[in-house]
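Blinded run. Sample ID left blank on purpose so nobody reads anything into the name before looking at the predicted structure. Input follows.
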Amino acid sequence: MTDIKQPSIQHSKFIIGKPLSAIDSISSLIDGMLIEVQDQHQNLRETQQNSRSLDYETLQRVIVLYSEELDFLQIYRQHFSHWGLEQPSPKQSLEIARLEQQVKHIELLLLSILEIARNLKGNTIEGILDMKDSDSGTLLHRG
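Blinded prediction complete.
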């Protein structure tokens, strides 16, 4: 079965209200988040492309957790706006612009993850087990 990772939104307490001087720490978190989201996106794409099934609970967890991650991106955006008012150095301005692009990329990946997970819900393990024998035999033969 594909390795479905659980995202960490524990970093939210660490992020809120951080000054521009914390940009390096925030950069590390965003870069790590992008790597994790890319990995999860690839896992779900492989699951979808290989006609694999996941259980309903796993898919529901993915949907809930990545929806929360998507909502959390707004906190990063608020920081970027706030930091822009703190008269950042040219180097900090470049880093803020890079982070804004990273967050846009993360957002696109999260939206895709949620779409794939919702599509996979129609083909859960529970759904296959509940099918009539003839229907599940056809599905198993195809997969």
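Unblinding after everyone has recorded impressions. The two ends are 14 Å apart (CA to CA).
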